[in-house]
Design brief:
heterodimer; A: 265 residues; mainly alpha; B: alpha/beta; 2 domains; six-stranded mixed β-sheet; 16 strands; 26% strand
Chain lengths: 265, 302
């Protein structure tokens, strides 16, 4: 456990000055900021629609969720999986890591967990910034009715689903980035996978959930459909979430065996 | 308890069906500076990577401090510091941060980072990004990283690569100090014999994956046969005369005849012979073949 802990601390220490780390913070700040700014600018038009508070929250948070789930999230995961491994490929430091008196599992797991942590941080910030910027809008434009509905549950549920649905892609991309030191191979495969994922999720193909890249889109799609009725009445652990978790676990274990067999040339 | 810090027993290693290391039996005594010599591509770096378990060796062929490496990986790595090929440095971090990161991984005090920076002469550049370092500075940082855990055994793969003459002398003195004062064992690889000759107590010469010589530096010197160099006028006739009297001519230039040295008395007799036959001998001296040539000879015949 100590080896895992110090490896994690080291991951943080060496990445804290990189774009990969700051992207986890800047991405939600910029996207939520832009959406809130748009709502602020168009306040009169939006207020004129007389949305009930729940629908107003749904419209407001759905903008960020939609952009994230379909487009940015998969690419963000590709980038995270790439950058956590690329820091070692680029600097030729795998040999240094594997000559430290640490077990190989800790080195591998700490990298994986750090990528998970960055994705969690990013999504957590999305949820909390959506919540707080909504209330900030209420203060700036008192005619909004954000204060009449508490969106915490729907936000937590949606982002929790998005997070869990992303882990399958993360594990797959993590292995690709671990094996290949170049940018194009894992990114190319990820890109094609994501496009396929978006298409299969949208056409509603029966087996779309078997493609890990379509899972974030699928997870949010079901959320949306259910929103029409009772927004809180959707299960987190749906088929696509289980699929994602199974992919994540199996690929994580395969990745570990690759690491133990890996010769550092 | 084994007296060897490193011992390999008939070590074999191949990559993609190509044999890189063949039946290698290294014996590095504790407290020695072991010069691991060989031309480029001889298998030095591969051997060092095997000693660090970066490359998996067959079981029961590699022993560090008497322990088998595959089954004692972590315990062994705790006692080793290494510099393999180019130093492993994070370019976006400063020199100091690189060392602090190493302190975190090793669970040691961060103050060691500053001690190491002063030791390798990088204190002033400690807050500069490592990617901006010169080749020599990177090499120093790599050595600092190898030393930071105060290991008993140091594996240094061509540590003076890219250093200027002053830097080379500093590293050489540092190695001697570490071995004599701090009782460390150092395995240092190089393709330059002259560099090893000044620091090493023991030498192993490897070529095409095979160990061609292993022993103390004095044993290596003994291998080189002494020669007698004779400077004489009329080289052609002088050598004809010597051959007629049964002397073997090892080499001949337009000024010097070289014959194998056997004893001082024989040298005197040769001198008398030449003078009595009317030659003018201007100089006659014994010379050992220098180690550089010896090294070339050893690796060439393989």
């Amino acid at each position: 456990m100590r080896a895992l802990y110090i490896s994690l601390i080291s991951e943080f220490y060496k990445s804290r000055k990189t774009l990969a780390f700051w992207a986890a913070i800047l991405l939600p700040v910029i996207i939520c900021g832009l959406i809130s700014f748009g709502f602020y600018q168009d306040a009169e038009k939006i207020i004129a629609n007389h949305y009930p508070p729940m629908i107003l929250w749904a419209k407001y948070s759905g903008t960020a969720l939609g952009v994230m789930g379909f487009l940015i999230m998969p690419f963000y995961i590709l980038f995270m999986a790439f950058s956590v491994n690329n820091i070692e490929h680029k600097n030729d430091t795998w040999k240094m890591l594997f000559t430290q008196p640490l077990n190989k599992f800790s080195i591998y797991a700490s990298k994986y967990l750090y990528a998970v942590f960055l994705i969690f941080t990013c999504l957590f910030l999305f949820a909390s910034l959506t919540y707080s910027f909504g209330h900030l809008l209420q203060v700036l434009v008192p005619k909004f009715n954000f204060n009449q509905y508490n969106p915490s549950n729907i936000l937590i549920n949606s982002y929790a689903k998005l997070f869990l649905a992303s882990l399958g892609i993360l594990s797959l991309q993590f292995i690709l980035s671990l094996l290949w030191s170049d940018f194009l191979k894992p990114m190319g495969i990820g890109f094609v996978g994501t496009i396929m994922g978006i298409i299969t999720a949208n056409v509603g193909w029966k087996y779309a959930y078997l493609n890990p890249y379509s899972l974030p889109a699928l997870a949010l799609k079901i959320t949306r459909v259910k929103k029409g009725s009772d927004p809180l009445d959707f299960a987190i652990f749906t088929d696509e979430i289980w699929t994602s978790l199974i992919y994540a676990l199996v690929l994580f274990i395969i990745g570990y065996f690759i690491v133990t067999k890996k010769s550092i040339k | 308890m084994s007296n060897y810090a490193i011992e390999t027993v008939g070590l074999n290693f191949s990559f993609d069906n190509q044999t890189i290391v063949k039946d290698l039996s290294l014996q590095v005594p504790k407290g020695s500076i072991y010069g691991f010599l060989g031309p480029n591509g001889a298998g030095k770096t591969t051997t060092i990577k095997i000693l660090l378990n970066l490359l998996k060796s067959p079981s029961d062929q590699v022993f560090i401090f008497g322990k088998e490496i595959n089954s004692n990986r972590i315990a062994i790595l705790k006692r080793i510091g290494a510099l393999v090929e180019q130093p492993a440095i994070y370019g976006h971090l400063t020199g100091r941060e690189n060392l602090i990161n190493r302190c975190i991984l090793l669970g040691i005090k961060k103050s060691r980072a500053d001690e190491m920076l002063s030791l390798v002469g990088l204190a002033e550049a400690s807050n500069k990004k490592a990617s901006k370092y010169s080749l020599g500075m990177k090499q120093r940082l790599g050595i600092a990283q190898a030393l930071i855990s105060d290991p008993e055994l140091l594996l240094l793969d061509e540590p003076t690569n890219g250093l200027d003459p002053n830097g080379i002398i500093e590293i050489r003195n540092l190695m001697i100090d570490l071995a004599t004062t701090h009782k460390k064992t150092i395995l240092v690889s190089s393709h330059l014999l002259a560099e090893i000759e000044r620091t090493a107590t023991h030498v192993g010469i490897i070529n095409k994956g095979q160990l061609l010589f292993q022993g103390t530096i004095n044993e290596l010197h003994l291998l080189s046969k002494p020669m007698l160099q004779i400077e004489v006028d009329d080289i052609e006739n002088a050598s004809t005369l010597l051959t007629r009297y049964g002397h073997e001519i090892a080499a001949k230039t337009d000024k010097v005849i070289t014959v194998p040295f056997s004893s001082s008395q024989k040298s005197g007799e040769l001198n008398t012979l030449l003078i009595q036959n009317g030659f003018t001998v201007s100089s006659l001296y014994q010379q050992r073949k220098d180690l550089e040539n010896l090294f070339l000879d050893i690796t060439k015949t393989n």
